[in-house]
Amino acid sequence: MRLYQGIRSLILTLLRKILFLWVRTNVSGNSLETLNLDPEKPVCYVLQYSSLSSRLVLEQEVIRAGLPGVSRALPVKNGPSHSFFFLYQRVGGLFRGGRHKPVPTREFTDLVQFGVEHPDEDVQIVPVSLFWGRSPDKEKSLLKLLLSDTWSVAGRLQKFLIILLHGRNTYVQFNQPLSLQEITEEYRDNEEKARRKLARLLRTHFRKVRQAVLGPDLSHRRTLVEGLIRTQAVKEAIRETAARDDIAPEKVRARAYRYADEIAASMSVVTIRFLERILSWLWNRIYKGITINNIRVAREAAQDNAVVYVPCHRSHIDYLLLSYVLYRNGLMPPHIAAGINLNMPVVGPILRRGGAFFMRRSFRDNPLYATVFNEYMHVMFTRGYSVEYFVEGGRSRTGRMLQPRPGMLSMTVRSFLRDHRKPIVFVPVYIGYEKVMEGRSYLGELRGKKKQKESVIGLARTARKLTRSFGRVSLNFGDPIALADVLDQVHDSWRQEAYNSEYRPEWLPEAVNTLARQVASRINAAVAVNPINMTATVLLGTDRMAMDEGQLIRLMDQYADLLRAYPYAQTVTLPAGDGRDWLAYCESMGLVIRQPQKLGDIIALTGSNATLMTYYRNNIQHLFALPSLIASLFENKANLSRQKILFLATTAYPYLQSELFLQYSQDEIATVIDHWIDILTHQGLLITRKDGRIARPEEGTEAMLRTRLLSRFIIQTLERYHITLGILRKYGSGKLTAAELEQQSTLLAERMSILFGLNAPEFFDKTLFRNFIANMQKNGVLHTDENGLLCFGDGLDDVAEDARLVLSVEKRQAIQQITMLDA
Which of 63, 75, 496, 663 is most buried when burial is the number of CB atoms within 10 A of its CB? Predict the structure, then answer.
């Protein structure tokens, strides 16, 4: 027997080495840490389909990763000399079809029997999924279909040809282990039920992984487009348009077809594989690495849901980067909503084949186009495709999260109401750049330069930047949001109501707004802090944007400790190293300058870099918002009672929450602020006096410098609020419309920016003033009369007086002089 086993092992080893002369694999999850395996317990691997080639690949990857070997015998009486089994057993002759069925193999039966009879001994069952190639390309020939790894099962001859064609693009995914003890625990007296439970769990698992990796079956694009025109909603829109515009129905139908053809993606696996190789080269050229965190969220969501990826939008690179990362991690790239401006010659067709579907910027006045687009989105969701769109609408020019636009979210909600058999889950994604490629053009646009339209020539100019380094990129996946849970929160009886393609319930805007706030706040809760934005945050808080090197390093370390003391969210990531490492890195990127000095080198921001660094500072501003708000209350007060701090901070919080998409609810914010007061006193930024009042540190001390600098992280936001309040008090109640107040506030902020040398372009961003005015109306501070004029009561004076606590004397006097208020 030993001689037989030895010869068999030698033959398998030889076959494995021959196979891997050709096969190349991309593997995920193959580490002890990722799998969280207990080294004291035996491990058994399970593959979906019986196949010699799959076994050989499994053995090779287990050896490469240093995992418990598949050749180890399991502690099963009369069991096999290897520790793996196949879920599906092949039925048929050597060259007969690919029929597999879940017939319990001897290894499977013996393993379950062992689990039932030995309740004190456990076996870790690790499911392993293997894909020869990735997804089918159904728009190609029959031969191409034959040689693709799809949802169907290949016969032996077909498998041989598939390995020849796709063996160099093999994907292997190790998944979290199942506990044999936990599965058999409730069936100690019924081995048959235990076998059925384990088989059901494994079948379900493999099905979910296969859907996540391959995605739903792709339909022929022309069939999809024609199907859209035949839907009841589009037919009705064609009839209405023909009657309204007095056009022949055939011409309107042709127009609808052109709309559908303009919109629809044409995802091609050939293009995706080509782009993967091109992008791998590109990322290695312009980035120092891509860091991915919490990818398991996307994997789990994709297994049984229609997934909507909702990343922040900072760069055109976002589209490519997220699809690349998903594909490289074993997930089907999503269909991406792209602006019609990107449908350029050459570029447009490539993006369309990479999964982009194109949409016009506005189609409110074109009901036919709106209907076609809505039906296209509905098809995507009901068929289980993953979709990606940017809730901000456009790229952020300031580095902050923009106010979400309701359009795509509303379409998604309405589609789900029509047909909610396939759950929809939103996966927030934070994409953090150390150096955004469009940074310089953003500065120009914020200073009034006209936005350049996308064009092939513009892309050619951008290509010149590919010789530069843009640092590292981070992709952090945030906590998922189940759409059904949001609807339950807003309108718990939504499942009992009937909806058609045109019905918009009264509670729809509230549901969309709630969803938008959750998406935006969870994107921010997944922020990746990096050396650039830490350096920017500290230096931009100084008067002259310059600081002694040693002091700068100490302050960055101390503020990082502040973030660790009360983590904003578990999905936030901090950079490796310390302040010294971060400064050296920032200097190597050319974003700060060093001025040698005998008493110690000075680190400074100069020129356009000083303004550009506000972009990176704004990426993480929300993390410091609450401690900075508390510190700012001591700008003009030596001490305050804890109750007063709580009152002032909770009063300001709704406005900061709306602007920075902070995650805490109004019910919990008092507790959070109280906790921050304790942390600030524990770290010496505030002091608790014997009488219980909270005081700032002594002037001239290192602690006071830290407190004052911390307050400046948020002070400009609070100054903007005071500008608006000052203008309201100048004109009085019932004298200005919201638009007039917005304009006056913007002009005054722009003047203040010039007078005090403020380098933050968002300081006079009119959309921020618009949002603040809208929130004052929402919170009842302002109301509108029948003429559209803003009215307020005496309470506004109290709010304005409290707001004055955070202003320096110089800025307070400047605002008073301009608004002609008494000191």
Answer: 663
Q: Are residues 687 and 737 in the same domain?
A: no
The stretches of 36-105 forming alpha helices (DSSP H) are 52-65
Give the pLDDT score at 415.
93
Q: Are residue 599 and residue 625 in the same domain, yes or no?
A: yes
Judge whether 392 and 404 are in contact, CB under 8 Å: yes
316: CB partners within 8 A, 6+ apart:
395, 437, 438
Q: What stretches of 435-576 show up as alpha helix (H) in DSSP?
A: 439-446, 456-463, 483-490, 508-524, 531-539, 549-565
> So what's the pLDDT on residue 314?
92
Residue 335 and residue 459 in one domain: yes
pLDDT per position as a tens digit, 491-510:
999 998 877 777 789 999 99
3-state DSSP assignment of residue 418: helix
Residues 550 and 698 in one domain: yes
Position 384 scores a pLDDT of: 86
Q: Has residue 237 been placed in a domain?
A: no
- pLDDT tens-place string over residues 293-305: 999 999 999 988 9
pLDDT digits (tens, 9 = 90+) for 145-170: 445 554 445 556 667 777 877 778 88
User: 426: which 2 tokens?
Assistant: 């939103």
Q: How far apart are CA 435 and CA 468, in angstroms?
A: 10
- Say whether 342 sits in a helix, a strand or coil: helix
Q: Is residue 7 part of a domain?
A: no
98 in a domain, yes or no? yes
**Which of the residue ranges 44-48, 88-92, 129-133, 207-211 has the most confident prediction, judged by mean pLDDT?**
44-48
- Tokens 């490629």 locate to 437
Cα angle value 266/519/482 (rounded, 5°)? 80
Q: With contact defined as beta carbons under 8 Å apart, do 311 and 292 qualify? A: no
Structure tokens at 369: 């186009």
The residue segments making up the domain with residue 398 are: 266-524
How does residue 814 score in pLDDT terms, banded at 50, 70 and 90? Answer: low
Decide: helix, strand or coil at residue 298.
Answer: helix
Q: What are phi and psi of 529, to 5 degrees?
A: -75, 135
Domain total of the chain: 4
| Alpha-carbon gap, residue 792 to 782, rounded angstroms | 5
Torsion of CA 531, 533, 535, 541, to 10 degrees: -160
Query: What are the CA-CA distances from residue 283 to residues 202, 412, 590 (Å)?
Result: 37, 32, 20
DSSP letter at 733? T
pLDDT value of position 118: 85
Tokens for 799, please give them: 């709010």
pTM of this structure: 0.78
Q: Provide the 3-class DSSP secondary structure of residue 435.
A: coil
